[in-house]
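tmp note - Antibiotic transport system permease
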Amino acid sequence: MEPIWWIFKHNFEMLKKSKVRLILLVGIPIVSILIYFFAYGSSVGNDTIEIGVANQDKGTYTTALTTLLKSEKNVKVTEVSKAQGEKELLGGQKEALIIMEQGANDSLELEKPAHFRVKALQGEDTAKSIERMLASQLEKLVKIERMSEGKDFNKSFAIYQNEQLTIKNVNLSNESEIAKSMSAQIIGFFCMMLLYAAGSLGELLLKEREEGTFYRLMSTPISSRQYILGTALFSLVTLLAEIVLCLLAMRFVFQIDPGTSLGSLFVILSLFAVFAISISLAFSFVFKSRRSLSAIQTTIFTLSTLLSGALIPIQIMPKFMQKMAEFMPQFWVMDAVSKLQQEGSLLDLGLNILVLLGYTLFFISLASYRYTRNREIKSFI
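out:
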């Protein structure tokens, strides 16, 4: 244990002497936040959501519903055809589309709302926000219909509109939904940064072998196993520090509410950090040069993050790519974050945790196998 601790302290002293590494240690979490913070344009609580309403069953009640939707705060409603609405949704001009299908007007007259659909490509949070807003206005419309007692709905609706300033409406709060979406995207980008940070472990092991530092250490009582464990432990502690810094900065510096507890997020990201260390170790034993290792790691880490839906909302991907995403470890982190934001707990993340542990075990096994087969390393044991 003492040799491992010595390696840990040695790496820590080297870190303190390297200003570049210290800047990267602090900078990676902050950059991960800033990229999405400015990408959203500080939109929390300020941006207006653009939605389209395709009324395919125009009548007294669906027209009144459209009027109610237009009265929502922080929401800009535009009446469009279904085809135009879907085109603008795909083009990014609209964030959601509400479709009132045939039978919607009659269902409102019968006080049993049906035949309403919501489409959104920016994630589950956006769709659920619009669905809650629609449900709220449908409930309001049904109450107005009951007030009219089936006699003159238009008259009751006009009275409601005239008295609207004195009525306290329950409007959709976009702030929490935008914050959840932003925090999920930050965590997705941060996962890629964690992979890159962990990748430096493999590059360090190869660098010290290429420069002869590793072999000089092997001439001391320190064994190769102790050296590798000590270095991996230091890398893991570094990643955990970055996770803590990212979560604290996101919540208390940038005031972004992730929609779940920081403790739960820390657990999930910590599991991913362990996986990142395991894959870096495996790659360091598979490849013989830093140049090839760096190129392969950059390619794999970037592509897997893109395919997993960590950088791009998975809902806008083609179906076959959505299936491919499930084979990426980052997907299970994002899925866990989504479940936590939907008021889930760590107990609901059994499958996510098992998958991450499975990937970790696989790469640790690969690293162990390559280690035992590597005569160059074992020659100093």
